């Protein structure tokens, strides 16, 4: 037996391990099980290359809790350690590794958060245990078994011992303040979080299953107690895409998110081995506009070891809306988050994923356009967001990003330009893309545009103003205009100017009369000679104003615009007979009533007449019907 003192340069790291790693104690289990998996995989390699003569046999790793003895044990049947190896790996290497780790993060305010994702190895056991024992038998049968024991201070004992089976038991004597880790439910929860897809079977207790024996009438159901293996050692993403059917991907989706009932729209299987290693499966979920997004859905693994499900800053933001798994052994496990964000390999991986996503969308679009169109509404938020946040993705998306018109037809941007360019180019050569945000709410304006033979796009996603701005900058001589931002003749100005039925003098007389009868703070009166079949009074919101307002609500745009009161243009069509009648009315009261009624009708046609104003309008209208 040898007593020793672990070689410490920092006074004593144990109190620090316990104290400052406070919030994420649970990761000790991931660390110990990862070590057990490593030891098992190493042994497999050694036997394969002929360096170990041992019979592999059953390699299942087992987790046991003993409430009475207050111990938690992780047992593997991996390559094991001799006393010399324990001294080298645990007393020296692992310790200095842990020491370095603790020193590095000691002063960091977000230390705990870092450790939640990236562990500190074997010594994390001391976060929850007052004493840790290692009992290990090397695969090299000539070596004696080793027993190591340490009570959370630099003193340890290391002695030769007896152990029948090859492999390592790590026995944790759980602290009184960590008794939760002796609860079966708690351990099961952790195994499910961190170990669900580890590559070696992991047993936690037993479970009862019902087996059907025999066939037909003789079939008998029999209950049987079997090992409870908590993981799937060969998850779908580790298999070749060619070996998987659509159903397998769906099954895997349910395995990943057992509490989600929605099925994914489609999947992307990532499989790269050069110039970096990357596997994974990404799913496109249905995303409705205005839906609360759950961004922590993609899980990052390193060789099937769960690292994190918070990929913020690691992959482009829009990709965090996808679901699924990314696994890469090139992703460093034991580093801080900020390091990960600036790591070269991670950057390459992230731009590769973006490209893959674009390729897949392009393929789906090309292979079955009808199907792609039917899914568009569910995926457009993600794609539009991607187009805005990633230049390369914007360029790639030109091939498959769709624009829908109010009639429900879909076009790529190029197709749409081609469709409308003849009729909707104004006298200055500018192509005007008309759009509506609500098919019903802006119906009267849409109808007027259709009457002229124009087409109207439906642009209703939350970030649409930003997207239009982006498209305007990359397309010269092209502009978007919402159908209700001006009268249709003004939106797409053509050469022929309408002659005015009213003289300039008459217009100058009428304008102040109308201004005097409406709320000046709300309406800017504009006298325009539109065609006589246009409405007499039209309410419009100038494109620039509205867009600035919308953009300031979704980020960007001019500061403070979001709080601006609603302001409208009241366009008065000087060519309409009703306007002529107002001018000829000599009774001032009647004239005012006519203007009021005209303005209210214009507001009503846009769903803008509300509350008391609406009640008054309805009453007034009924009264006038009664009077006949
Ligand atoms: N169950 C085990 N079986 C065999 N060797 C083990 C076992 N657990 C730990 N070891 C040895 O102890 C060493 C230190 O373990 P530790 O977990 O501290 O660091 P690590 O596994 O090398 O790195 P990481 O920080 O990624 O966990 C391992 O490299 C391994 O050699």
From TrEMBL:
Q: Does the keyword Amino-acid biosynthesis apply?
A: no
UniProt xrefs under Pfam families:
HATPase_c_3, HSP90
Residues engaged in binding ATP:
31, 35, 76, 81, 96-97, 168, 337
NCBIfam families per record: PRK05218.1 (NF003555)
Q: Which PANTHER family match?
A: HEAT SHOCK PROTEIN 90 FAMILY MEMBER (PTHR11528)
As for family, the record states: Belongs to the heat shock protein 90 family.
Please give the name of this protein. Chaperone protein HtpG
């Amino acid at each position: 037996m040898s007593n020793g003192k672990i070689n410490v340069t920092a006074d004593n790291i144990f109190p620090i391990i316990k104290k400052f790693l406070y919030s994420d104690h649970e990761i000790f289990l991931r660390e110990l099980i990862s070590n057990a998996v490593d030891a098992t995989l190493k042994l497999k390699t050694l036997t394969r290359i002929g360096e170990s003569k041992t019979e592999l046999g059953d390699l299942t790793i087992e987790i046991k809790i003993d409430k009475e003895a207050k111990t938690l044990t992780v047992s593997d049947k991996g390559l094991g350690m001799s006393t010399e190896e324990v001294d080298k790996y645990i007393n020296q290497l692992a310790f200095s590794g842990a020491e370095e780790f603790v020193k590095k993060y000691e002063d960091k305010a977000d230390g705990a958060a870092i450790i939640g994702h990236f562990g500190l190895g074997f010594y994390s056991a001391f976060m929850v245990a007052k004493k840790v024992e290692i009992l290990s038998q090397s695969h090299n049968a000539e070596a004696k078994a080793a027993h190591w024991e340490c009570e959370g201070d630099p003193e340890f004992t290391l002695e030769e011992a007896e152990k029948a089976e090859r492999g390592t038991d790590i026995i944790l004597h759980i602290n009184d303040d960590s008794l939760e880790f002796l609860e079966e439910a708690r351990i099961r929860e952790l195994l499910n979080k961190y170990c669900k897809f580890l590559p070696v079977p992991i047993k936690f207790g037993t479970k009862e299953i019902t087996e059907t024996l025999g066939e037909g009438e003789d079939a008998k159901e029999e209950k049987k107690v079997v090992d409870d293996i908590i993981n799937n050692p060969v998850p779908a993403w580790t298999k070749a895409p060619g070996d998987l059917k659509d159903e397998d991907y769906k099954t895997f989706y349910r395995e990943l998110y057992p509490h989600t009932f929605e099925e994914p729209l489609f999947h992307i299987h990532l499989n790269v081995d050069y110039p970096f290693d990357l596997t994974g499966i990404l799913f496109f979920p249905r995303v409705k506009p205005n839906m609360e997004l759950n961004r922590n859905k993609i899980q990052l693994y390193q060789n099937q070891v769960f690292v994190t499900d918070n990929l913020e800053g690691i992959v482009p933001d829009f990709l965090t809306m996808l679901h699924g798994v990314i696994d890469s052994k090139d992703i460093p496990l034991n580093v801080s988050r900020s390091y990960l964000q600036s790591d070269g390999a991670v950057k390459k991986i992230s731009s590769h994923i973006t490209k893959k996503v674009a390729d897949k969308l392009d393929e789906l679009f090309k292979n079955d356009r009808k199907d792609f169109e039917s899914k568009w509404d569910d995926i457009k938020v993600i794609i539009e967001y991607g187009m805005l946040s990633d230049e390369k993705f914007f360029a790639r998306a030109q091939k498959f990003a769709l624009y829908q018109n109010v009639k429900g037809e879909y076009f790529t941007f190029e197709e749409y330009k081609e469709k409308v360019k003849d009729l909707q180019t104004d006298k200055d050569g500018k192509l005007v893309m008309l759009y509506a945000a609500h098919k019903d709410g802006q119906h009267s304006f849409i109808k007027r545009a259709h009457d002229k033979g124009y087409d109207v796009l439906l642009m209703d996603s939350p970030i649409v103003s930003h997207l239009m701005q982006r498209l305007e900058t990359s397309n010269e001589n092209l502009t978007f205009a919402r159908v209700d931002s001006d009268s249709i003749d003004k939106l797409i100005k053509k050469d022929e100017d309408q002659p005015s039925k009213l003289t300039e003098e008459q217009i100058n007389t009428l304008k102040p009369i109308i201004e005097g009868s409406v709320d000046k703070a709300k309406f800017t009166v504009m006298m325009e000679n539109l065609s006589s079949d246009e409405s007499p009074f039209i309410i419009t919101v100038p494109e620039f104003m509205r867009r600035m307002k919308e953009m300031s609500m979704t980020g960007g745009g001019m500061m403070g615009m979001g709080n601006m009161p609603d302001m409208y243009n009241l366009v008065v069509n000087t060519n309409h007979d009703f306007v002529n009648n107002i001018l000829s009315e000599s009774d001032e009261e009647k004239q005012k009533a006519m203007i009021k009624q005209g303005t209210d009708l214009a507001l009503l046609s846009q769903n803008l007449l509300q509350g008391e104003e609406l009640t008054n309008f309805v009453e007034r209208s009924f009264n006038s019907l009664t009077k006949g």
